[in-house]
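Table 4 source record.
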Amino acid sequence: MDQHTFEDSAVAFRVPPFEFLSAPGFAQTRDRLIAGKLALYEGNHLFNRLILEEGRFLCYLAALSLHAGQDMAQPSTWLTLGRLQREVTELGVASRNRVEAQVSCLRKYGFLTQQPHASDRRVRLLVPSATLLARDAGILGLLVTAVSDFGRSPIGKHSGPLPADLHRAMRRATLAHLPGLSRLIRRHLLLAPFFAHDCGYMILLLLLRDARESGDSMFPTGYQRLATQTGVSRTHIRRIIEAARDAGLLTTATRGGHDICLTSSMWHAADRWFADNMALTDLLLHEATTRPAGAAD
């Protein structure tokens, strides 16, 4: 199947992604979304390395979704390490050991805690920190703002992080769509050089922003600059840039990645990625605002 087409069944969108892509003002909304995400991600090297890779990102989403959807009266819904491992391994993006390692890192740096259940202290519940929840509410808020730019938001014009109740409802709605979201990421094969590597998504956002600021012409970045911005090594940056170049997403004119130009294929793929994100956000937002609180998934 052509990886640029929207005609697949990854997610049963309410509004087809091409309607966002073809809407007036799409490029401006996309650029604001890129800038907003970078404002949240830049400088947070540790957090970015913990989530900005496909498998880790889906594990992160699964943890937040299970937390939002759990019912303390129903033990089968509790967010435990075992439940998270089952959810993520069923997606086929990480092994049980890899999930456990990510949870350990999130706990080590205070993004998750593990607490005994009040009525059964043998059960250890995973609890996202206020910092993790606030950061996710900020990211979702940017996406809801993008959807509201097109007049499609059921909550009207929005700006800023989501309020706690709406954030929880949207992450509760995310749970049922995790398999579709996994397929959604994988259908963007052309962007695999970024999605499959640590901080690759951050590097993608930086390249897109730099290209727009240069008027979509060649821009003077470099491996060292990108390494400093993302907190990964120059070698790691070089491998990602070379993989993207080999995939036809960009060209480099000098050694060291100092002169990069994004190709039309890069913008073509990136636009479809952001259109998919907007369509998914629209779906989650409508499910969150129309489903009764506490309804079963």
